[in-house]
Design a protein that fits this description.
Peroxisomal Thiolase, Chain A, domain 1, 9-stranded mixed sheet, two-stranded antiparallel sheet
């Protein structure tokens, strides 16, 4: 568990105004309607014009504006995604973003570590800022599924994917703050804990590697096939058991005294409702009541951006008193789970 003294000083997000109605989608998929409706989502975000980097730039500028920090003060910039960025494979979204924001001094890093990527990047930023000359880190998650062969409704089990970008500016607590920044209320990072289960990586691996052909590229979007093969070989309960154990360990690490009356909200991954009910809600006091499912069901699973998009939503729509807390909980292929406990400053 990391206890480096850091704060999230500002967040920003880009959520497309366009929403796809899940009930309408269910009517269009023969034989899939029951499964789609069973996820519990109402609507999901869909972006038809902007590509991931463009959405990331909007979210990044909003986060910087909210934080009071300037691009030239950044020492680290991380971009996370789980899907294609729309350009050549070797192109670096993080480098492009540093150029667009005007912060060439920031170390650019593009991360692909599944849907827990942004949470892991936040954890890495703690160590990086603590060992550097200070400054701030900007961590951005961005994904767009509209312009690919990935079917947001049927490519995975129990999940419908939404398009969005979410960004956070992180600083050391003792970072110098000019007078005009003193009024900015951030979120102090109290503790972070990550659990890994690398034996589950096969959930997203093909049975055998193969050459790049048009047929194989199409097959890469079929998340269900890999999961089905793995669960048939290793038992249908293996993922659920590992998830419950990991979430329980995070709860015990971050909430050692049990329920904390100061904990007002828990931002889970925006998975389908059944997955949340079976794997996540039972492991936390008030797991369902404190959740952000009322928001998640209207945007979909936003790749690695669920947690910061949720934090940005809460910061803008709810008033938190100083000292109130919330918990961010991420999970992603690999497999890894990360919990971060925050306190309102």
């Amino acid at each position: 568990m990391s206890t480096t003294a850091l704060s999230i000083m500002g967040t920003g997000s880009y959520l497309p105004e366009r929403r796809l109605d899940v009930a309408d989608a269910a009517r269009r998929y023969s034989g899939e309607a029951e499964r789609i409706l069973g996820t519990g989502y109402d609507r999901v975000c869909a972006e038809e014009n902007l590509y991931p980097a463009d959405m990331a730039l909007i979210a990044a500028r909003r986060a910087l504006s909210a934080s009071g920090w300037e691009p030239h003060e950044l020492s680290l910039l991380v971009v996370t995604a789980i899907h294609r960025h729309g350009h050549k494979r070797l192109w670096s979204p993080a480098s492009w973003l540093t150029a667009q924001l005007g912060c060439p001094q920031a170390l650019p890093l593009t991360v692909n570590q599944g849907c827990n990527g942004q949470m892991l990047a936040l954890q890495l930023a703690q160590g990086y800022l603590g060992g550097s000359s200070g400054g701030a880190a900007l961590v951005v998650a961005t994904d767009q599924f509209s312009s690919s062969g990935f079917d947001r409704f049927t490519s995975d089990y129990g999940i419908i994917y939404g398009d969005a970008a979410a960004a956070a500016v992180i600083t050391e607590d003792n970072a110098a703050r000019p007078a005009d920044r003193v009024g900015h209320r951030g979120w102090r990072v109290l503790a972070t804990h990550t659990v890994t289960a690398p034996e589950l990586e096969g959930l997203h691996r093909a049975g055998e590697p193969g050459p790049e052909t048009p047929e194989l590229v199409d097959a890469e979007h079929d998340v269900r096939a890999a999961k089905k093969r793995y669960l048939q070989e290793n038992g249908s309960e293996s993922l659920q058991q590992a998830t419950r154990a990991a979430v329980r360990e995070i709860r015990e690490a971050l909430l050692p005294e049990g329920d904390d009356p100061r904990l007002r909200r828990i931002v889970y991954p925006n998975l389908g409702l059944q997955l949340l009910q079976e794997n996540y809600f039972p492991e936390f006091p008030g797991g369902a009541e404190r959740s952000l499912w009322d928001f998640g069901r209207t945007v979909g699973h936003l790749g690695s951006g669920d947690q910061i998009a949720g934090l940005d939503h809460l910061t803008r729509t709810e008033e938190f008193a100083r000292g109130e807390r919330l918990l961010l909980l991420g999970a992603g292929a690999g497999f890894s789970w990360t919990g971060t406990l925050l306190e309102r400053q």
